[in-house]
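Job type: complex structure
Entries:
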Amino acid sequence: MQLDDHEEKLLRSVALQNARAVLIAREKAERELLSAKEALNISNQQVTNILERISDGFVALDPKWRFTYLNQKGAEIFRRFQKQQGSLLGKNLWEEFPEIKGTEIEANYRRAVQDQVTVEFETLLAPLEAWYIIRAYPSANGLSIYFLDISRRKRTEAERNRTEIALRASEQHFRAAFNQAAVGMAVAALDGRFEEVNDRFCEILGFSREELLSQTFTDITFEKDRAATAENVHQLLAGEIKDYTYEKRFVRKDGSIVWGLTSVTLLMGEAGKPERFIGVIDDITLRKNAEELRSRLAAVVESSDDAILSMTFDTIVTTWNKGAERMFGYSAAEMIGQSIERLLPKGHEDEETKILNRISQGERIEDYETVRTAKDGRTLDVSLSVSPIRDATGTLTGVSKISRDITGRKRAEQALREESRVLEILNETGKAIASQLDLEKIVQIVTDSATRLSGAQFGAFFYNVINQDGEAFMLYSLSGAPREAFEKFGHPRATELFGPTFRGEGPVRIADVTKDPRYGKMAPHHGMPKGHLPVCSYLAVPVISRSGIVIGGLFFGHPEPNIFTERAERLVTGVAAQAAVAIDNARLYDAAQHEISRRKQIEVELRSVQDQLRSHAENLETLVTERTSKLRETIGELEAFSYSVSHDMRSPLRAMQGYADALLDEYAQKLDETGQDYLNRIKRAAGRMDLLIQDVLAYSRVAQGDVPLKAVQLESVIRDVIQNYPSLQPDRARITIVTELPSVIGHEAYLTQAVSNILTNGVKFVARGVFPEISIGASRENGLVRVYFQDNGVGIAPEHRHRIFQIFGRVYSEKQYEGTGIGLAIAKKAAERMGGSIGVSSEFGRGSCFYLLLKPAS
Amino acid sequence: MTIPTEPIGSIPRPARLIEEIAATGDHADPRLDSLYDEAIRDTLTRFEATGSPVITDGEQRKYHNFWTYSVDGLENTAPDGFKIPFAAGHVRRMPRLTKGPFRYRMRADSFLEFAARYTKVPLKQAVISPSALSLMYPADDIPGYSRQEFIEDLLSEHESEIRRCLDRGAHKVQIDFTEGRLAVKLDPSGNLLNSFIALNNLALSRFSEAERQRIGVHTCPGGDRDSTHSADVDYADLLPSLFELRAGNFYIALAGEKDRKRVLEMIRQHLKPDQRAFIGVISTIDPHVDTAEEVRDRILEAAEYIPLNQLGTTDDCGFSPFSDDTSTSRDTAFAKIRARVEGTKLAEQELNRR
């Protein structure tokens, strides 16, 4: 759409009128701009005048780094850079002064422009030999640079720095000397208060510098040395002495005492007056302690129980303490200057020389055990520790020797070793006989151990044994002598010497048997037979079982007298006791082994009899299975036969009924009453026969054929039965389902058959005049469903209960209650075919409760 | 090298908002506030989803249109101002100033302030040019309020609006100068156009160089209901003067031009070194959704004429400069914006490969 002419004209008119107004506005704006520019020029001129007058340099660059303005000072700065003279205006900074490129000056200028920030820095303009503070101000017009000459300030600063550095160095040297001095140094005011202390001083006294600066030297002086200190200070201040040096004690921060070799002098002021004390302390605690230790050691050496002596390398004794006098019996006077070799026993003559050789080769000898001879001839077990003695230059000058009398210890060690040996033997013996059940081995172990324990040269164990036949005889074992040595002499007899042992009267220990009055009394040898091993020391110990029977005797001999001690007797007696127990055990073990063998034999025989029995049982089972199978076949055949018989019987029966009915219908008038009665009887009999056959058929059907089982809704089956049977209708019976009825595993037809038979029986067998009532319910019983039918019938006497589930097992005559007597048999069969059972509880005259036990469906 | 890409401004309002405005009969009815707010939030969300690095609030609250939003409802105006004709046959009428002094009733920074609450993406704000609003003063002088006074007030109000937008952090402030072509149409001699340029430059001269780099000028034939008021005006009559405007950025409708190369050649000739040309690569009056590849090809074409450091892309125009314009759906608008963003990236990749 186009605007109409009028509209367009009007619009144009307005626009053009506006244009005029805009023109006026623009002119006004331009005038204002001019005015502003003029004001700016004036202002610029004023600034320029100021800039020209100031003593600092000022330069302006445009965005292309061209000089647009340099004040007088600025021009001067750049002129001194540039060899050629001439105006820089309009010239490019970098082209005119290429030497600036790559310097911090360029970097700072460019940063100012790039980041639009003012950059200030100090720099030395080397060609000018002048320092400047340069401030670069960025603006839209480029960069303004301001140069402030700080050379004078820099020179002053440098001068001051140099002086300060020198002073600082001097002071540092002094400080270093003061602080790093190996001795403690301190400066204290005249009142004793510390003003300066060095590190070593702090270290010696254990205080920090700050802690010391708040104390006086009197504070840290050991109390007993304070008086001497005060006296020295007094003399110093009085001018009586220029300095003093003495050993004094200080108290460290931890309370311990430190010895210091202390030198103190005065620091004089310009007027020659004392201003401060300067003290130097050298820690001599170690030396002092060493001195003290030395005197203590001397006392220790003298009072020691050990023999402490020194001697030269040619074995001449130089010192000999009291301990040595006591140990060896020689006095110091007797030994000093004499050779130590007088103490050496036979066989040890060169021992001292060897020891001295080892020492001279730099060895130390510690706890060297040997023997020495005392003045009285006693041999002493000693332990020697030998150390070299050196003079101040480190040259070996002799040895010091400490001898310790270890005779007692050696004896104790010997006793201990013997005890250990005995314990070891006892332990081994105990373990060995405890783990053995072989009689021969036990007696050999016992004989060997006891021989070793007793110290005998040989030993024998004579013992009695009883064989399986109950015969007793004597055996023996030997230790320390070959069997041949005794074989020819026969067994010892119960002589006066041996008798007490074989009778179990106790140990016999004789120092010299040949001198014993019991010895040599028996003929024919009257003592030891010829060729017998020589026996002087004699020991015999009986071995008696726990039951008191003497098992045998342990006999020991030694050709020397006095060999067997009381301790040996005790030890052998202990071994004999252990041996008795072990022998008893071995005998019991033999008896047990015998019993076990006997029982094993019985078990074998028993197993054989069991095998025979099992074989018989298996045969019997097979026989029963076979016969059961045959019986089942027979029953099956019988049931099939009864079914076919029953079935086939119905055919002629129906013919009989049919012809009887035909006779009654068509020829009744031709028969007299008797004839008619007979005919009616035939008909009733045929009817009853049919009922019987039907029931038998029903029973046969239930009893044979495959029964596929599945979940059946019990309640549905029961309600169908109640609904379909005339005798169960409400006008004829009151049937109530009193609980929930679960589903069961069964067969619907079989279940229907069983339930209907139970219910129809229930309503039928009631006393005259009683209205039938049946309550139906279900409960769980041992994992099965128990469906019960409680009626108010006549009940069943206990003596009849076993019959009611049999075919034709009637309790009441047919005249009393109609029926074939097969119903409950069918119900029973049906229950069994469903894997269940049927039962009844009843009391005569008080109703019955029939029940079915069936498997639950879930 | 990246090619900046920015939208022009308007997005079609949601249909429900348009219906409710029509139902109430008053754009400024407070009962519409929640609908306006919802429309802005939805626009920002969907704008962000396009991936556009710079977005707008879709001018959802610019009552009526981009031209008169600042003066709509002024008591000292009458609705019988000039008619602005469009090619499709409909006319939009401007308000007429009836008495002084002239003041804006609403400034665009209020839109910016609201939108900034709901997005972290840089926001651009469009404002109307003083030359467009200058046509409110009637042909006959208003007694007691001279045209000169009006022009002064107009410039002050315009300056104030731009400053407030800049102060609120606008990524760019875009002056809508669609009346440039209309001026040529009304006065083929070019005097009227030059007058408009002079008026706008008076305003722009009040800003520093750095500020002017955040200010741009948008010109197009004037899109409304998929038609234009001055598409028949040749760019040759407009562009030489347009680049005289002292703005740092120019948003020039180009995709809808019949001979783009000719226009690009003109831009190349007249674009000044400190100016960037955002060329229109999406035709907002064409319902076809441009593919990214089409957009890419338009940029590659433009890159042959415009130095890459002075090239940007934009849409030819706002998608709905007038609030009741339903000729383009919101879905189409955002699909076209996405095409611009993706096409610009494709072009960048291509140009960087070269």
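Summary: DSSP finds twelve helices and twelve strands in chain B. The first helix of chain B runs from residue 15 to 24.
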